[in-house]
Queue: 2 jobs
Job 1
Amino acid sequence: MAGHNKWSKIKRLKGALDVKRGKIFSRLSKEITVATRLGGGNPAFNPRLRAAIFTARTESMPNDNIDRAIKKSAGELEGPGTAAVEELVYEGYASGGVALIIETATDNKNRTAADLRNAMTKNHGNLGGPGSVAFMFHRKGQMTVPTGLTDEDRLLEVILEAGAEELTREEDQFLITTPPDQLYSVAEALKTAGIEPESPKLTFIPENTVAVTDEQTAAQVLKLCDALDDLDDVMNVHANFDIPEDTLARLQGAH
């Protein structure tokens, strides 16, 4: 397994685009809304909602915002459109045969599909049918822990006991991978051990990656991912590209 959605790493290196663009609380609210609609508004009986609330709190989202999102989705508050938000997953391709999975949360499927198609057409991509690329990815939970917070042996002991699958080191952080239903329990075990995890989330990890060595193709792939990520209804973009670090450095230096 490739172990990481490289687009997530690039976004982190580019400086937390979600925060700059004011989208992070909106996305967190939508995730809480979808989780509540699918599993009910009681976190004790809804693991996905527990994970969504945990993530929202790690991102310093106010409790009032969290409660409002749950109550609106559960029908306890009046609110335009919130309860109608649904989760849709799209699949497609970028330049160079790179596979994409695009998670959305929307109250208007036609608008979302049109926006995605437009972004794809303008950036050398195309949407595929259901199942066209999903088999290339695994659904997993992931979170990170800064290397300065703990040593690897202690971290490994805590997370394996809580049900994690894998621990890898990436520069200044540890990357923890879990089964989807163990994301929350592993994050809670870390907190109990005095280790604060960052960005716990459900993600799609590619089974294998596609090497993109041509600089023009790499630029097209990144531009498409950026365009998709910037759409209001898009929650997450997952891709299976592997662009060499020196190519990435040149492309980022050109902007």
Job 2
Amino acid sequence: MRISVALIVALTVLPGCGSVPPQTASHEFLDEQTGTTLSVVAKPLVFARERTDVAAHARDYATLVAIEVDNSGKYRAYLLLYRWSTVDPRMSPAPDPHAGELRILAEGRVIDLMPLDLMPVSLSQRRELHVPDHGDVIAHAYPVDASTLRFIASSRELSVQMPQEPLETPFKMWGDGRLALSKFVEGAAAP
């Protein structure tokens, strides 16, 4: 009798253990320092450009992360840019951390974004914001609207450029987070 009760309990619990939760549009957390709630896209967009001019298998990267900040019911959307590289800095110096113009090329359209002068405290580099696990990361924040994020998410052809950098070669898609971005925009409250 005891074995059959244990078996019934095990059979009812096991299906829940094997199920995979659906991919969420974002994850939320409270920034205790500012009192704001941040919604972060589940998977960032990662772009890369080959740097075979300086070393084999070396790349420059640009990671874009969509964020929505809820400050007592006032919503703002941002794109965070993390610019980093596997190139030895002796071979190619890092970009100027104060120059952060971002050009997104999507479906033949050019979207030029200028960074905020100061990074908002709630958007400082932290693990929850998909900061690359690399020592020298330059970060910038760009205010955006939902229609721009929606357009980026639906674009089949997508690349980015850093106009302030001497190398004009665009960064091409390396890690595709467009589906996650699309789901993020669907759930966002910012207009």
